[in-house]
Amino acid sequence: MSEKEHVVGDIGAVDISRKSHITSMGNAPAYFSAWDLHSYYGESYIVQGVSFDVREGEILALLGRNGAGKTSTLRSISRTDTPQLHHGEIWLDHQPIHSMKSFRAAQNGIALVQEDRRIIPGLSVEQSLELAQIAEPVGWARERIYEHFPRLAERRKQEAVTLSGGEQQMLAVARALARDVKLLLLDEPYEGLAPVIVQEIERILESIRELGMTTIIVEQNAVAALKLSDRAVILDMGKVVFDGAAQEVLDNNELREEYLAI
Ligand SMILES: Nc1ncnc2c1ncn2[C@@H]1O[C@H](COP(=O)(O)OP(=O)(O)O)[C@@H](O)[C@H]1O
Ligand SMILES: [Mg+2]
Predict the structure, then answer these.
(1) 194 CB-near residues (< 8 Å, 6+ apart)
(2) Nearest bound ligand to CA 77?
């Protein structure tokens, strides 16, 4: 196992001093920091002391086998009602996200693009983007979004539910950018898409990367995610088992076989 293996803290022995948030990049606290998250679905204890940092502009791949707790971790961070976060701290740009409900977390810059993409029936592409911008703080102007997503521009009058899977994924990402996003959370953006569409989404994510959008990407297609990412965190049974450079995971067959089944 890697010498960089993350040491997970025990419940009750939590050091919540700000020292815990200092990164190896100097004295600045991390832009985003999840610290000792413990989350439950009712009695089911799922996220078991997850900690990691993300620097501003960085892309982090959050990986692990099916059922490892990736979605649950993203949902904990975005403060959805389930799973319930019982313990831990979440900081984004100096804001205590852990003390917020999902609506406030979204206002403070957390955008979760869920696996099912949450396309709203009855609305056109244009109306879906308008709805995303109905309340402050808004992000990209619609024209800028259409420049980056020409397919969406072509289909702006089309009902969003009639879009292809790839286009729906583009719309889900575009809706997030229409808000004032500080941390983009992508849950399996390539799920169910044909390889040619995956390439198109990859290009969009690369352009997002060039724009310096801080992003956490969860993907079963670990190699594709790792190629896009600076760093990787691997979860296994609700715990962090690796935290290091994305390239290190690409280079380490044992690690991939043990935790990623690739
Ligand atoms: N709504 C839920 N209620 C109870 N258990 C759940 C629920 N959602 C997920 N789980 C359980 O939590 C664990 C982690 O799931 P999840 O976070 O979806 O994993 P991943 O996204 O890594 O595949 C799994 O054992 C799963 O069965
Ligand atoms: Mg999942």
Answers:
(1) 166
(2) 1
* 114 alpha carbon – ligand 2 mean position (Å): 9
Tell the CATH topology of 18-259: Rossmann fold (3.40.50)
Q: Judging by DSSP bridges, how do beta strands 59-63 and 231-236 pair with one another?
A: parallel
Ligand 1 pocket check for 145: Cβ under 6 Å: no
Domain boundaries defined on the chain: 18-259
Residues 6+ apart with CB under 8 A from 77: 34, 37, 90, 97, 110, 112, 183, 185, 216
Q: Which value, to the nearest 10 degrees, does the dihedral of the CA atoms of residues 180, 178, 89, 83 take?
A: 160
pLDDT of residue 136: 86
What pTM was computed for the model?
A: 0.88
72 CB under 6 A from ligand 1? yes
| Ligand 1 and 237: CB distance under 6 A | no
| 24-79: pLDDT as tens digits | 444 556 899 999 999 999 999 999 999 999 999 999 999 999 999 999 999 999 99
Mutate which of 37, 45, 46 for ligand 1? The one with the most ligand atoms within 8 Å of its CB, which is 46
Residues of the chain with pLDDT under 70: 1-29, 262
